[in-house]
Design goal:
406 residues, Aminopeptidase, Nonspecific Lipid-transfer Protein, Chain A, seven-stranded mixed sheet, 19 strands, 32% strand, globular, binds coenzyme A
């Protein structure tokens, strides 16, 4: 078995192999890979070939930027197009590709990688842990009233406006709004310009046509959008993504879709767990949460660099004993956080927590409490208050969330 980067002339072979591995894909292969794969860079696309030179497996990475807690932007290779032909499965092809890919990423100087998993049972063994979550909130329109704010006495009605854009008007507006949003949202990924350009400004999350409602502030500057469609059953209005870093703008966009005549219910397809919108409903039970699932998985390749890169919101000190079974590595680190910044150095001190690198990936963005993984029996706490201290340290100001599909 040989694993090597795809050459420039082989992109079609790569895409053909991915499509055959998945058995179905939104787009048939065309010369140059087609729209779907147009943001791939061939030297980041790995092909697995048999001794006879037959391509049987693929794996690639997109060069994304990830927003960490504390609004720090870091390079984050996004693993994609992972597939092995049905005829060659369960023979270790994926395992060999993962090993090759992680070594390649390290050689490029990366300290973490991310992916979305087609099945939640595949990637833990390679050191990836689920780090952001998403869920669906379904609201019946006849019970959809939103309560006014009770906390802010100065709460003024939204001084901005919402309008539906025609496709030709989307242009760079959405790309610009998305880019500003993702820079402040922990867990969010950059989106390659080429995807926006090729879809004439439509959000790239779905190949189906969508309507876009854009919110503008009092000065007319776009500061949020919701993309949505209306369909079966019973005129369900489905919101694919609501993009804004501002809660008041989110509320204005939610009011807009909830006020849409002819829709019987509104489904917000991707909101983070515990989203404030649910609490804004006058009738809490009018909001039905479903489709709770993992979204972005994180794999740390360099623990000290990763831990010092993110922002922190509480001071403290923890000794972490980290096992990395897939790469056959082990490290014990003293993590010291002061004034929002961390120091992380090797240590011989007795550990507070022993954990697998996949669990560190899960808690890294603040979306999973270390105490949950202690209670689940994944992380070992060596003293009674270690889990509470770890919860306080890893917690973030804003729940991480990723809307990007790749
Ligand atoms: C998932 C896929 C890439 C696995 O490839 P593969 O070459 O058969 O995997 P390997 O033989 O290297 O298996 C490595 C390990 O993963 C496990 N594994 C592989 N596929 C799995 C799956 N779908 N579910 C659970 N475990 C799986 C194997 O049992 C093996 O376990 P071990 O570590 O205990 O030995 C392949 O089944 C495939 O192409 N599926 C369809 C496309 C897809 O879902 N791709 C993933 C996109 S995120």
């Amino acid at each position: 078995m040989e694993i090597r980067p795809t050459t420039d002339g082989e992109l079609d072979v790569f895409v053909d192999t991915v499509h055959a591995a998945f058995g179905r894909f939104p787009e048939t292969p065309v010369e140059g890979g087609g729209l779907w794969w147009s943001a791939l860079e061939t030297d980041r696309c790995l092909l697995a070939l048999t001794a006879e030179g037959r391509p049987v497996g693929t794996a690639a990475t997109y060069p994304f930027e990830l927003t960490l807690p504390g609004e720090t932007l870091v390079p984050a290779p996004g693993v994609t197009a992972v597939g092995v032909l049905p005829s060659h499965r369960r023979q270790g092809v994926l395992r060999a590709m993962m090993r090759h890919q992680l070594a390649d990423l390290r050689a490029r100087g990366e300290f973490l990688s991310v992916l979305l998993a087609s099945e939640a049972t595949i990637y833990g063994r390679f050191g990836y842990g689920p780090a952001t979550y998403t869920q669906r909130l379904t609201v019946q329109r006849h019970r959809a009233a939103l309560a006014p704010s009770r906390a802010r006495s100065d709460h003024a009605p939204d001084s901005g406006s919402v309008e539906v854009l025609r496709r030709a008007e989307c242009g760079e507006i959405l790309e610009d709004v998305y880019d500003r949003y993702r820079r402040t949202q922990p867990g969010a990924l950059s989106r390659p310009h080429r995807w926006w350009a090729l879809r004439a400004g439509q959000p790239p999350i779905s190949p189906a046509p969508r309507y876009v409602a854009v919110h503008r502030d009092a000065d007319g500057v776009p500061d949020g959008y919701a993309s949505y469609s209306i369909g079966e059953p019973d005129n369900t209005l489905t919101v694919d993504e609501t993009i804004t870093g501002d809660d008041a703008v989110f509320t204005a966009l939610a009011r807009f879709v909830l006020g849409h005549d002819l829709a019987s219910r509104v489904v917000f397809r991707h909101i983070p767990p515990q989203h404030p919108l649910h609490w804004q409903l006058v009738d809490f039970r009018a909001g039905e949460v479903s489709g709770d699932m993992d979204w972005l998985w994180v794999r740390l390749l360099d623990v000290p660099r990763a831990l010092t890169a993110r922002g922190w919101f509480a001071d403290g000190e923890l000794v972490l004993d980290v096992e990395d079974p897939f790469l056959g590595e082990h490290g014990r680190y003293l993590l010291t956080v002061q004034d929002g910044k961390a120091d992380c150095v090797p240590t011989d001190r007795a550990p507070d927590l022993s954990l697998d690198v996949r669990d560190l990936g899960s808690v890294y963005l603040g979306g999973t409490a270390p105490s949950t993984l202690v209670r689940a029996g994944h992380i070992r706490a060596h003293r009674p208050d270690a889990a509470t201290l770890a919860d306080a340290l890893f917690r973030t100001d804003r729940a991480p969330h990723c809307l990007h599909w790749f």
